[in-house]
Amino acid sequence: MSERQFHLNAFLMGVGHHEAAWRHPNTDAANLLDVKHFQNLGRIAERGKLDSVFFADGLAVGPRVKHNTQAIFEPVTLLSAIAAATDKVGLIATASTSYGDPYTLARKFASLDHISGGRGGWNIVTSAGADEAANFGLGAVPAHSDRYERAEEFVDVTLDLWDSWEEGAILLDEETGVFADPDRVHRIDHDGPRFSVAGPLNSPRSPQGRPLLVQAGSSESGKDFAARYAEAVFTAQRTLEQGQDFYSDLKSRLIRYGRNPDDLKVLPGIVPFIADTEDEAKALEQSFTDLISPEYSLRQLSNMVGVDLTEHSLDAPLPPLPDLDHIQGNKSRYQLVKDLAETEKLTVRELIGKLGGGRGHRTFAGTAEQVADELTEWFDKGAADGFNIMPPYLPGGLEIFVDRVVPILQSRGLFRTEYTESTLRGHYGLAESVGKRSRATVAVEVSA
Amino acid sequence: MSERQFHLNAFLMGVGHHEAAWRHPNTDAANLLDVKHFQNLGRIAERGKLDSVFFADGLAVGPRVKHNTQAIFEPVTLLSAIAAATDKVGLIATASTSYGDPYTLARKFASLDHISGGRGGWNIVTSAGADEAANFGLGAVPAHSDRYERAEEFVDVTLDLWDSWEEGAILLDEETGVFADPDRVHRIDHDGPRFSVAGPLNSPRSPQGRPLLVQAGSSESGKDFAARYAEAVFTAQRTLEQGQDFYSDLKSRLIRYGRNPDDLKVLPGIVPFIADTEDEAKALEQSFTDLISPEYSLRQLSNMVGVDLTEHSLDAPLPPLPDLDHIQGNKSRYQLVKDLAETEKLTVRELIGKLGGGRGHRTFAGTAEQVADELTEWFDKGAADGFNIMPPYLPGGLEIFVDRVVPILQSRGLFRTEYTESTLRGHYGLAESVGKRSRATVAVEVSA
């Protein structure tokens, strides 16, 4: 077995990432409403020895309720139910730093980590939607830079809260009646521009000490944030070259924050259509594309590029788009869509087809061997430490990946054949906990 | 079987309600840290056909970390894991209206309701602790009346959010690609003194429409709040007469809010020590009292009465206590402790012993038959619609209640022998959902 190993996350969304998945005969739309479907997905991922499963999240319905299948479950409560049905696989939930309190969030993820025996992870997002802001008393979305400033303070407080109970603070001494050593439970007394939090957290230290920190922003601020805090990054990269650029950029930023490049795993997304032959795989993808509803997709695309395209002709190219500087939402996804439309000279209809599988993430149609080759090439050529697998339909698209692609990676010595660790940090080859002292050192180096 | 039936909730706390439970040979202290212990408790409650299980919660560690076993798990995430291990029993979690956002809370409980197939309930509290305020950016606890004003607006918004998706809004029409009928998904556009929330909720209507609303405040504001919103009330009443007074007071308030007295179930707490003979039951209780740590209990009592008693002699009576008007915390519990100490002329040591079982809730030691008789008397004489069972030790104290007391109640035709409903509202004999219109009617009657 080679020394460097793949890390694989299953990004789970309803009955599949393809926007028309729920209408396709390969899925059962009723599964959208059924927690047992999601528990089953957790078990399939565990059968494949995957590092983790992951759920995205948003804090508004958005204007697309007619055609967009809504998430039924909140990610952390859903992952608690999946924890009860699995033993090993990591459990990563999205939660926003733009609304709510660090105390509540720290407690929620500590609880998930306790419930799962050390398998919890937090995908940190800074909600960019105006519809989200309006659900939390704000008339407009905070500016991109404000969101990241708040995110930094939010994460700092959360880390301090997770560290407020030292390892070994619980004594459970039945003889003397001492539950915890008060000298190993600390106030944090944070008093910053946005948050004032006394602590300690109302949860003893969780099995991992700190749930794994994941991030997916790929803007300049996003990459700096990831380099400072994240331990895994989900990213959308469409070509090997773009993937290599992103990978080396992010790893070099890590060094500036006094971290080791191995302390963060880069996991590009891929939407794999897998079949016995390449032709069958392409036909499978086409059968999904054929079900795309243009009305829905035009709204989705309008949202991505910040221009109303709902009356735009499907067979014309995109109209001129605003400068990146004017985008306050997901800057990196905007850039990706703009580049894709311009370099490939696509009509709106063609663009919609390309985006339908994974909202900008790379789609790939081929045999299991071809998928494994593609992944291995990215892994070998410095574009990835592993992948964020985004099955276009569920559960089938996850099953075929686990049952056909994973064994190829295992036979090449690139992926575990059994779990060797019991925590999410363990699966990703990261220390059990970075602890208070090492983070303080980082802060000093940053300010130097 | 008689028409009027008992409703029974199991109030679960660590390895038991008695403050020394974790040190007693009847428990295994390691269970405090083990989610499987709590899943097992859910299954025991379900074996007994109980209506629900319930977890309290607080938003700070408090000053008693040395002796006070801390909750390891956050209630809603814990109940999601228990939902995965049970099929029928209701799942009630405490959450505060004093901190956080209605949008987040509405979503979390909707998710629990989806995950459990309609078994979710919310015990509404208005956190009274200064240590809690300091974890959410406040220098002091909001005044009692402010907390209740905020609670009312918080609950109003939450109910509107739960109603923002009408029954039947999800169409899942694979042919036309229509997920939901946008005409049945509504903005709420709430703009009040404390919250501004656009809606709709990012969760389709949950199986119960609205999770069950539970409340436990017994002050004047608390009783009015309960009469307006609650569907079940947990209360601490030490004597039949006090129980009758509380019961008739609360039911009469319901009528003022245009509600039917049956729309709210009154469930006094009881901490039952059960054994084959009365003497054995009393000896069992004494074996717990003997393990009480005075250092811990004096802090606990100081907290309840708002006077530092940690240097006070254990064998003297309580010092003079402040007037009720000066208490900003749990007013009804303060009054109960003061009355108990004064009417029974107790020393501090005796008072601590009386409070050790259930922090002011009634303890009762006897045979299963005696417990059943006591409960039946309260039920028959207008003091209770059922009970909040607070086992002094777990799991044993719940098992003996389920295996010995429940069959007696069943043989008397006072309690179900099988679940006849699948939702928590169903177990409590309440309508599936009150719906938007009926609540608007209530509001009109209130202002008339």
Automatic annotation (TrEMBL), chains A, B:
The keyword Transcription regulation does not apply. Its EC number is 1.-.-.-. CDD domains: Nitrilotriacetate_monoxgenase. Keywords: Flavoprotein, FMN, Monooxygenase, Oxidoreductase. Residues 26-383 form the Luciferase-like domain. It comes from the Bacteria. This is LLM class flavin-dependent oxidoreductase. Belongs to the NtaA/SnaA/DszA monooxygenase family. Pfam families: Bac_luciferase (PF00296). GO terms for molecular function: oxidoreductase activity. It comes from Rhodococcus globerulus. It is an enzyme of class 1 (oxidoreductase).
